[in-house]
Predict the structure of Lactonase family protein.
Amino acid sequence: MPSRRQLLQASALASGLGALGFQSSMASTVRPATSGPVYAYVGTYSDGGKPWRGGRGLGVHQFVLDGATGALKPIPGAPPAVTSAGADAKLRNPASLARHPSLPMLYAANEFEAGSVSAFRIGANGALSFVAEMPCGGKDPAHLSVHPDGRFVFTANYASGDVSVIALRNDGSFDTDRAAVVYKDVAACGAATPCKPGADVVPLAARSHEGFATSDHDGPHAHMVQADPAGNFVLVADLGLDRVISYRFDRATGVLSQPSTVAVSESSGARHFAFHPNGKWVYLVNEEASTIAFLRYDGASGVLTLVSETSALPKGFKGTSYASGIRMLPGGTHFVSLNRLHDSISIFQVDARTGAPTLVREEWTRGNYPRSCTLDPSGRFLYVCHNKQGDNVTIFRVKKNGDVQFTGQYVAVGSAAAIEFST
């Protein structure tokens, strides 16, 4: 059996061949591609600032998808990226991307102290053109999403521990007559349920893998914000408070109100979540504990209830790892989560009756420090972004049994943080 060093050398060779236009023999035929072109956009860290960012991205890199193989190729006639270099740059660490649900618009959260959101129009050939930049009112927006109605953008502002609501016009541009409205995470809890940073304790579910990371429990740190599938509530995962906040959402005004919260294990570090297709089950990545919290969701009240927490790392693992992205696979029978430093994809099976997740196995990501993963529109390929030293996006085939298999394809992108698609 080849050693990990040999595998790394082989992967580096494959990466170099990929850059020269060669495809690995590991790629195999999949179902016929969907009609019409599919475009892919990779957000990056363009300004190092902090060691884990990397800072080698050019901005938002743009590609066209080969639907037969999953490969990402340059858009003919378009620049490799919408750049963030130079004195007139409109981007800085566009590390999170979101597509408008009905218009050819793409939004990027600029993760730096004076946080902002940039809007781009998607051209007929898939190339992006800058439209405008809007301050979000918070610091270091680490995640953004668009409400299903397409009238508001949300940002989760990590450094300031709050979320912002930004109004959009009918054409998808920012409503500059309305400033972003900011909601502090700590204000979501009352006297009976105080929000406070957790202590550096090891949650029970993290003890099985004998590894636990500690960082950023010095205050609130909003890490993800997204509406529920029906669009009636907006959920926020706060890493520093170890909580998920659920706000009732006014679809006409964009106002967030009547917050309720659910706590996960102290110091576990709530990061990102994914809804099951039934809208009743939620799976939350806890970054510090490297665990998955399984929660039940009441769509009528917006209330979340914690059911269980399960390790996302193999039993007996010793060392430090930071869990990151999560993605539900087609059909809802499986989902995947990412582990940084362990550099793996954890594959979970979902109990069809109870929703309980079971860790099936781990798959090496073929890169360093995987930050996020996304499915292409067909659900046949999974793309993993590596932002620290990996500087690439690796491509996996999603099998019908819920497993994933590396295609042998690498896409060279400096400090890749997130990928979004457009049809």
